[in-house]
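Dear colleagues,

As part of the handover before I leave the project, I'm documenting each prediction I ran so the next person doesn't have to rerun anything. This entry is a single chain, and its sequence is reproduced below.
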Amino acid sequence: MSQFQFVGRYSIYNLDLTVVDANGLVTDADSLPSASMRHYANDTVVFTRSTVKIATGVYRLVLSSVETSDAGLYYVLWTYNLSAIPQEYRSDIEIPTTLSSQFEALSDGYRAIVEQTWDRFEDLFDSAVGGPHLREYTQSNFGRERLAGLLRIAIGKLNTASQPHQSYSIEDNNFPFASWGALLEQALYVETVRHLMRSYVEQPDPQGINVARLDRTSYYQRWQSILSVEQSALDGMLDHFKIASMNLGRAGVLVAGGAYGNFTRTVPPGRPRHRPPFGSW
């Protein structure tokens, strides 16, 4: 769920609170805030303890691997006084049922890409817990961890989709997020849609049964129609990315001995091309 902060299972995790006064200025609380971790469903208290000050107006609660060992939805209630007036704040957190080793290993930049892409899937209405219908099955691992695995595939395809070949990788953390983060997010989104299509390809089609049911056998075609739209958007972004990587953002001429080259690109961004579309192999 988008309002829940993702906390890896069995992880040691820092939750920070920044205190801001009525004028929007970061300021210290009267004393160290207290934090209480509770179950989201029934308000059962897991623990209550004081926090640690790490900077002016910034306080930290460190969750241990024992406290993140039980999967579920929780919230942390922060309580403190500001100018002798009682204040409180709430942080909702999600601890997944499966381990998140791939996601936990990502740098902050790549984690942000996964989170932004996941936000585009998790508010789908087909699942009671948020996201596509696949999340309903206990054996399904669809979530941020799955997207973290698909991110490696998306980066590999960006590197090899067309000239020039590039060498971005998760391990080196060398992707230019500030300039091209939107491209990588779109590439991961398209790769995730393709994963959903593979997942829905074996939805059964009951024969000889005349009962009311939710028919998901057409989900493959529905996601395919979304893929077509998103693929077109990605192709246009990819054109700009590759052109910029070759420093061909501007037309150039060679005047010694004649004029060479073109003043315009031969394939405008988004125009169908002879090469296969990104993500089709």
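Residues 102-206+213-245 form one domain. The chain has two domains: 5-95, 102-206+213-245.

All the best with the project,
I.
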